[in-house]
Amino acid sequence: MCWNALDNEPGVVRFTMTLIRHGQTINNLLQKIQGQKSDASLNWKGQVQALTIARHLNDQKFTHVYCSDTQRATQTCEIILKENERNGNLKTDGILHYYIDKRLRERYMGVLEGKPIADLKKLAKQSNHHQKLFTPDDGESPEEVARRIDSFFKFLCVEMCRESKFSEGSNRHKHALIVSHSGLLRSFLTLLGQKYGCNLPHDILDVSCKNTSRTVIEVKLTFLDDNREFLHDMSDEMFHDESVDRVAKSFENHCRFQVEASCIMLFNFDHLKFV
């Protein structure tokens, strides 16, 4: 059984996810498709945006930080953490670490990588598809993106539960900062809505995810059976030596749980008024 002393509910683990899109790049400014290969760094405005959201989040206590491996995402993440460190929100070793996860990359757009967004709109229209659902040649389909972000979400649930088994008597709230990309975050939210019942706008694909906008999701995992023995058998060696997908699958097979996800804030960028 998992527990969280903060809410004192046996068999329940709660955590918060704060999702941040990276700051602006020159490709954003030129309205080009960045995907995975066109890995531009933050431009001047993007750095200011990242610093502004960092200051907006300076009172947050993040216990877990995950980031896409692109320059634009890691730069945004590092600016946020640097400002957060300055305000004293540190882990016990004095450093708030973050973890790179390739599953948080933007959707791969194949032959359209680096091309104008207008080209995507044109091809999508010709094929009678919504541009967010259209898959260009050699590109990654929406279903493939959904599978990898679902894999990440299951991994995150595993991590939160592993910590919970050691935290009986602790009141530390678990809060994950996730820095990624507009397409990936939109896919994540769509997954949470369609698979896990999170209450989201039905037109989520049409909602604009601005640079450094913030979305906050509250997650509640309710375990339906006693999983304490399995969780204690999940040693650190297993977690680090096995592939994360295998660990997540093993966890899913042994632990039956329900996911409740509540959207607290969707694509909020009020902090940009300070720019």
Characterise the protein shown here:
The chain is an alpha/beta fold. It has one domain (12-274): Phosphoglycerate mutase-like (Rossmann fold). It has 9 helices and 6 strands, in the order βααβαβααβαβαααβ. The protein has helices spanning 26-29, 44-56, 71-86, 117-126, 142-166, 182-194, 228-233, 236-241, 244-254, and strands at 12-21, 64-67, 99-100, 174-180, 214-223, 257-268. A 6-stranded mixed sheet has the order 3-2-4-1-5-6. The chain is globular. The termini are far apart. The model is unreliable at 1-6 and 235-241 (pLDDT under 50). This is Fructose-2,6-bisphosphatase TIGAR.
Describe the protein's topology.
Blueprint: E1 12-21, H1 26-29, H2 44-56, E2 64-67, H3 71-86, E3 99-100, H4 117-126, H5 142-166, E4 174-180, H6 182-194, E5 214-223, H7 228-233, H8 236-241, H9 244-254, E6 257-268
Parallel strand pairs: 1-4, 2-3, 2-4
Antiparallel strand pairs: 1-5, 5-6
Helix pairs in contact: 2-3, 5-6, 5-9
Distance between the termini: 46 Å
Profile the largest sheet.
Answer: 6 strands, mixed
Fraction in helix:
25-40%
If helices are DSSP runs of H or I spanning 4 or more residues, what is the number of helices? 9
Uncertain parts: 1-6, 235-241
Mean pLDDT: 82
Q: Quick one: overall form?
A: globular
CATH topology name, in short, is Rossmann fold
Q: What fraction strand?
A: 15-25%
Q: Could you name the CATH class?
A: Alpha Beta
CATH superfamily membership, which one? Answer: Phosphoglycerate mutase-like
**What oligomeric state do these chains adopt?**
single chain
What strand order characterises the main sheet? 3-2-4-1-5-6
Order of helices and strands, N to C? Answer: EHHEHEHHEHEHHHE
Structure classification = alpha/beta
Overall number of domains: 1
Radius of gyration: 19 Å
Family: Belongs to the phosphoglycerate mutase family.
Keywords: Hydrolase
Protein name: Fructose-2,6-bisphosphatase TIGAR
Catalytic activity: beta-D-fructose 2,6-bisphosphate + H2O = beta-D-fructose 6-phosphate + phosphate
